[in-house]
Design a protein that fits this description.
This protein is of the alpha/beta class. It is built from 18 helices and 16 strands. The chain folds into three domains: about 130 residues, Rossmann fold (3-Layer(aba) Sandwich); about 160 residues, P-loop containing nucleotide triphosphate hydrolases (Rossmann fold); about 120 residues, Orthogonal Bundle (Helicase, Ruva Protein, domain 3). The chain has a five-stranded parallel beta sheet, with helices on both faces.
Length: about 450
């Protein structure tokens, strides 16, 4: 509990302001009061207010409007809405709008103090998240790539080394590891940075159209070619052409690509005119091209032409140091997009992310966090709010009865969608026993039927 936390009480009733101020001041909090939303905003601009208790119904600006304007000034501020009997539905709406919680008049001092303690701890989590995000921005970000692991830092250095050259680069790695992001980083670090970066997937088009997509075609060169069309090589100009899933191109396209790389010239499908192609080519694949060469499915000379420099991206499971920095980056991104400023990860979700195997790599992590942010009911993303196909906790290395019990309780609670009564019945224990265990495990219970 942080007794230095500054709290603002906003209510048009003097007796409410004074009673809340006296209770909270008595236990050591620094308390400010305001009789209106307008006065509250003045105080928020002048003081380091972390928690605000605001009456739902006040003359002029109501509590919900005040909360929204306060967040514009201090995004991390946490708000509790004060309600009278019979306005609970409106209070629930306030929570959907971003309130931390609500309390009903008349107040129970112990309940208010307990709520403020939880909010102070939650605010500390928010500040830690903000600090971590700043560290990510300052130390772990390179051309849009978030990483701190030794493996990725070596790749950063390799990007810096190869970018100023004209060498072709082959980027390998599992699906979702960020191959296009690396290709863009090479382009942005290169002398071609002010020229186009054109990306295309070689697996996205039928074989019959891929050659036209890359090299263009002349009018009437095939059925449907009603006019001349420039291909990706011409569109890239003197910039960079990124060819993803390069292992999928057919034999005929391989021949033309090899010629384009060796002679820096292309010919449109159905045409005879040679066109200069001063383009830097970067390719990527999740397949082993050496095997394709042995199987005579990929030209050996093209293979070596493409892999002048090879960058192999490790899967996310092999760079665990990057998981939380990446997670914080995506959390900030989707919290802003969905107007859920101040949201954090629960300890259980953070533990899960560090132990999960991430078969879909960075792309799967980003999807998980976007899903969690959208479904989060409170101020911390819970396990039950993660995608259902991956949200089962991974058993810890420790096989103690306590550790296994914890995992089992979380699983049952998730299946009960946070309903403590139902989960306790399934577990065969008393509701109060389950509630106490969840508090012991630091499981946030604000959104449960506690």
């Amino acid at each position: 509990m942080n007794k230095k936390t500054e709290i603002l009480i906003v209510d048009d009733e003097n007796i409410v302001r004074e009673s809340l101020r006296d209770w909270l001041s008595a236990v050591g909090y620094k308390v400010e009061t305001a009789e209106s939303g307008e006065k509250a905003l003045q105080i928020i601009k002048q003081k380091e207010i972390k928690i605000m208790l605001a009456d739902l119904i006040m003359p002029g600006m109501d509590g919900i409007e005040l909360m929204k304007k306060a967040k514009e000034i201090v995004p991390a501020i946490l708000t509790v809405i004060i309600t009278a009997h019979g306005t609970i539905q409106t209070a629930i709406t306030a929570i959907r709008e971003g309130a931390y919680d609500y309390i009903e008049k008349p107040f129970c001092p112990e309940k208010v103090e307990h709520l403020i303690e939880n909010m102070a701890e939650h605010h500390n989590l928010i500040e830690e998240n903000i600090f971590l995000r700043q560290r990510i921005k300052d130390r772990f970000q390179f051309e849009g790539i978030i990483a701190k692991s030794p493996k990725m830092l070596k790749i950063f250095e390799l990007i810096k080394t190869v970018a100023p050259t004209s060498a072709t680069v082959l980027i390998t790695g599992e699906t979702g590891t960020g191959k296009e992001v690396v290709a863009r980083a090479i382009h942005h670090q290169s002398p071609r940075r002010n020229k186009p970066f054109i990306a295309t997937s070689c697996a996205a088009l039928p074989e019959s159209l891929l050659e036209s997509e890359l090299f263009g075609h002349e009018k009437g060169s095939f059925t449907g070619a009603v006019e001349r069309k420039k291909g990706k090589f011409e569109a890239a100009g003197k910039g960079t052409l990124f060819l993803d899933e390069i292992g999928e191109i057919n034999a005929n396209t391989q021949i033309h690509l090899l010629r384009a790389l060796e002679e820096k010239k292309i010919t449109r499908v159905g045409g005879n005119q040679e066109i200069d192609a001063d383009v830097r080519v970067i390719t990527a694949t999740n397949r082993d091209l050496k095997i394709l060469v042995k199987e005579e499915k990929f030209r050996e000379d093209l293979y070596y032409r493409l892999k002048v420099v090879t960058i192999n991206l490790p899967p996310l499971k092999d760079r665990k140091e990057d998981i939380l920095p990446l997670a914080e980056h995506f959390l900030k991104k989707y919290a802003e997009e969905n107007n859920k400023g101040g949201i954090v990860f629960s300890p259980e979700v953070m533990e899960f992310m560090l132990n999960y195997s991430w078969p879909g790599n960075v792309r799967e992590l980003e999807n998980l966090i976007e899903h969690g942010v959208i479904l989060a009911k409170g101020n911390a993303i819970q396990m039950a709010e993660l995608p259902q196909d991956i949200n089962l906790p991974i058993l810890p290395e420790e096989k103690s009865i306590e550790a296994v019990t914890k995992i089992h309780i979380f699983k049952v609670l998730e299946e009960a969608k946070g309903n403590i009564t139902q989960a306790a019945k399934t577990l065969g224990i008393r509701r109060t026993t389950l509630y106490n265990k969840l508090k012991k495990y630091n499981y946030t219970v604000n959104n449960l039927d506690a």
